[in-house]
Design brief:
The protein is of the alpha+beta class. The chain has two domains: 78 residues; 144 residues, no CATH class. Helix content is 23%, strand content 33%. It is built from five helices and 13 strands. The strands form three sheets. Strands 1-3-4-6-5 form a five-stranded mixed barrel. Helix 4 packs antiparallel against helix 5. It is globular.
Length: 257
């Protein structure tokens, strides 16, 4: 039963993006997953670093949460009640070539990004999806701004909005990351999409400190060589709220090839 539009839902978390300064609040991470009935859902906003540690879910964990339809016109977008989050167990394991994860993810696999774009342009949905590109042609690392803007810093330094602030201010990642690929579609013109996945940005944050100037070699070894050549790399993609015709990579799915 729902009360005031709220309902209880079980969600398998599959996507979490690197946090950004929020228009409303301090910082948020766009999060998506698959409901128990097998549908895409986008949960927003998620102030992940401000959450109680006992509620900080990881990817491929099942959670129970109170949700209601967001004002966001994308049909998969729902608000969540942060205090209602309950983690239901450990993340699904990667044993047996990720079979338990595949069992949940692959039923939603689309043929290609070109197909997702066409369907969304005609019907208004889906605005989330996953597919396996026919060929990945490269991984680009492009320099961006080193620091947050003054307006972004002001948002990040709002205290008390979500509760206890993290000990460390959110780090600005001074690079943008892109994959270049071709869809499994004859007429595909090829694509270049930015990747906002939490994992890829956290790798930069940690490896730039650990390896210094050698961070890029380690980074490319992981996200270019290994994932492209040795894994069955799929892209989780979603549309941008303010630019509904634009798609970005919001997560990576990479079982053994």
């Amino acid at each position: 039963m729902s009360l005031g539009g709220w309902q209880r839902e079980r969600v398998l978390i599959t996507v979490r993006t690197y946090p950004t300064p929020a228009r409303k609040g301090v910082e948020v991470s766009c999060t998506a997953g698959i409901t128990e009935s097998g549908n895409w859902i986008r949960l927003f906003p998620v102030p992940y670093r401000f959450m109680d540690p006992a509620k900080r879910f990881r990817k491929y964990q099942w959670i129970e949460v109170d949700i209601k339809k967001a004002s966001d016109t994308r049909p998969e977008s729902y608000e969540l009640a942060i205090d209602s989050v309950r983690i239901l167990g450990d993340p699904l394991p990667t044993t047996n070539s990720w079979q338990l994860r595949k069992d949940r993810v692959y039923p939603l696999k689309a043929h290609c990004l070109c197909c997702l774009k066409t369907e969304r342009d005609e019907k208004g949905y889906p605005t989330l999806g996953i597919f396996k590109p026919r060929a990945v042609h490269g991984f680009d690392i492009e320099k961006s701004e080193d620091q947050w803007t003054e307006e972004q810093l002001n948002r990040l330094r709002m205290t008390g909005f979500w509760g206890t602030a993290p000990r460390e201010e959110l780090q600005k990642i001074p690079y943008d990351f892109y994959y270049r690929f071709t869809c499994d579609e004859r007429s595909c013109p090829s694509h270049k999409l930015s990747c906002t996945d939490w994992e890829i940005h956290e790798s930069y944050r940690q490896w730039s400190q650990r390896y210094g100037r050698g961070w890029e070699a380690k980074f490319r070894e992981r996200y270019e060589t290994t994932l492209i050549l040795s894994r069955a790399l799929h892209f989780y993609v979603g549309t941008v709220h303010q630019h509904p015709a634009s798609w970005i990579i919001v997560g990576l799915f990479y079982p053994p090839a």
